[in-house]
Amino acid sequence: MTEQFRGATVADRPSFTVKTLLAPLLRHPRFAQVLKYTIYAALVINFLIYAYDDWLAFKGTLPADAPLSKVLEQFATSIDMLAWLGLVFLFELETYTLSEKVLEGIVGKLLPALRLVCYLSIAYAVYGYLASTLDYYTTEVVPGLRDLCQLADQGRSLQTDVITYVEISRQNCASLAGSGEFVRVPAELAVVDRDMLNHLRWMGWIDVQNALVWLTVVFLIEVEIRLQAADRFSSRLLRTVRRAKTAFYGLLSLNLCIWVLNAYYIYAWDAFLWIYGFWAIELNLAEWELDRTSVLAGEQEA
Fold first, then answer.
1. Entry pTM
2. What is the spatial order of strands in the sheet that 191-193 belongs to?
3. How does pLDDT run across 71-90, given as a tens digit for each residue?
C-alpha cells in the first residue's frame, strides 16, 4: 500500500468533521440525493426572494439619477447570491455530475475559470457589504427635520431595521417611532433614527465577517478537491483542511444564531440553506473519497 493511500479512511483517523457527520447519509443514497436537490431548489427560491427585497430597498433609498456604483452597491446581496448559486452548480458538476473522463478534458479546465468569475462577483459583493457598512459612519443629520411628517408624501422612507423601509406618508408619519433626531447617508432618500444607527452598524459588520468566512470555506473546498483529485487522502494537509472547514462552519452557525436573536429570521433561514447547500457538496466529496479509496484498495490487492 502506498503512503498516499495508507490511513485514508475516516475510521482509521477518527475526528469530528463535517464529513464524519454526513457519512451516515452515504448508506441511504436515494434519500441523500432527494435531500440535496430539495436544498438546491430552496436556494434558487431564496435568491428570488432576496432579489425582490433588494429591488424594494433600491426603490426606497436611491433617487432615479443615482450613479451605477450606488445601484450595484444596493444590489450587492443579489449579486452575491447569484454568484454563490453559480459556485454550487459548478462544484456539483465537478464533485458529482461529471465523469473523470469529462473532467480530464477541456471541461475540467473550464470549470475553475468559471468559478473564478463567481469569486470575483462575490469579492465585489463583499466590497458592497463593506461599503454599505462604512456608509453608516458617514451619516449626516437631516437639517431642520424635527418631525417625520415634514417628509410625508415626498417619496422618502424611514429605515426601521436592516431590511425594512417604511415610506413616510400623512397617514403613518405621526405613528412612526423615533428618538427625535434623524440622520441619512449622503445622497440617499431614506432616513434613520439615530438610536437605530448603532444596530445597523453592528449588523453590517456581521454581514462583512460572514461573507469573508464563506470565502474562506470555499477556498478550503477548492484545496480539498485538488487533494482528492491527487488521491492524497492520508495527507495531513487534507485532515487540517477538513478540521478548519468544520470550525468555520461553526462560526457561520453562530452568525445564524445572531440573526435569530435579532429577529432577522429571513437571514437565519438563508444561512441555514447555504450551510446545508454546501454540506451537499461536502457529501459529494465524501462519496467521491469512498468510491476512489475502494478503487485504490482493489488496485493494491491486485
1. 0.80
2. 140-141, 182-184, 191-193, 157-159, 165-167
3. 777 787 788 888 899 999 99
